[in-house]
Amino acid sequence: GAGVSQSPSNKVTEKGKDVELRCDPISGHTALYWYRQRLGQGLEFLIYFQGNSAPDKSGLPSDRFSAERTGESVSTLTIQRTQQEDSAVYLCASSSNPGLPYEQYFGPGTRLTVT
Amino acid sequence: AQKITQTQPGMFVQEKEAVTLDCTYDTSDQSYGLFWYKQPSSGEMIFLIYQGSYDEQNATEGRYSLNFQKARKSANLVISASQLGDSAMYFCAMREGQNYGQNFVFGPGTRLSVLP
To answer: CB under 8 Å to A22, separation ≥6 — which residues?
Structure first.
């Protein structure tokens, strides 16, 4: 079946503008994660959704970052008033629940460049 | 403190040789899972292998095996018979406890280059 998809694949925006990134998880996956990956670095956890539970927002770096998810479907990550340090690849992953090993399936990412 | 340490920023291996990528972890949980992901230059993250903390045998998946040494808190990835297509970034990750979310952490990665 289809994997995790993300759009846009690339986004160039001016400093101060708002951006919205979209993630479509694998159908039936109840868990959805957002990560940020700066150039040459590892993955930085941002936010996690699990079914209808309250999301774990503990990784969001500032109040300019927010994310929503409708049920167990699409999620959007919004960055307001973008800054140059927001430039990174934003990766979305989904996972089925429950059942080990809870491995995550990743989307191709959105490369965000803030000029 | 770093939860996941990968001490090799870059590694080289000759095609058809075996290579070991190091990973050490830090947790006080008894129940946890260890993962390895591959990230080629195209950017997608590919799940390779999983080891549960209670698994008594080392995990294997094709040419990948995980050398799990619980007392040393290490979970090294061994790739046998390296292929040119193995050139990529490799990330070690850990899920602590039975929960998701921020308890799923990634190491900084090791860039593997396979030489012809």
So the answer is: A6, A7, A8, A74, A75, A76
DSSP B34-92: EEEEEE-TT---EEEEEEETT--S--EETTEEEEEETTTTEEEEEE-S--GGG-EEEEE
User: Mutate which of A91, A94, A106, A110 to test chain B, going by most B C-beta atoms within 10 A?
Assistant: A106
Report pLDDT digits (tens) over A12-52.
999 999 999 999 999 888 889 999 999 888 899 899 888 88
- Distance from the Cα of A98 to chain B's closest Cα (Å) equals 10
Q: Do A109 and B33 touch (CB under 8 A)?
A: no
Q: Is the dihedral of CA A109, A113, A114, B4 positive or negative?
A: positive
**Secondary structure (3-state) at A84:** helix
pLDDT over 70 percentage in chain A: 94
**Closest among B61, B67, B62, B75 to B32, alpha carbons compared:** B75
What residues of chain B lie within 8 A of the CB of A89, using their CB? 43
Cβ atoms within 10 A of the Cβ of B29, count? 13
Tokens of A106: 């990743």
Contact B20/B67 with Cβ under 8 angstroms? Answer: yes
Q: Which two tokens stand for residue A4?
A: 């995790």
The pLDDT tens digits of the residues spanning B3-48 come to 999 999 999 999 999 999 999 999 988 888 899 999 999 888 999 9
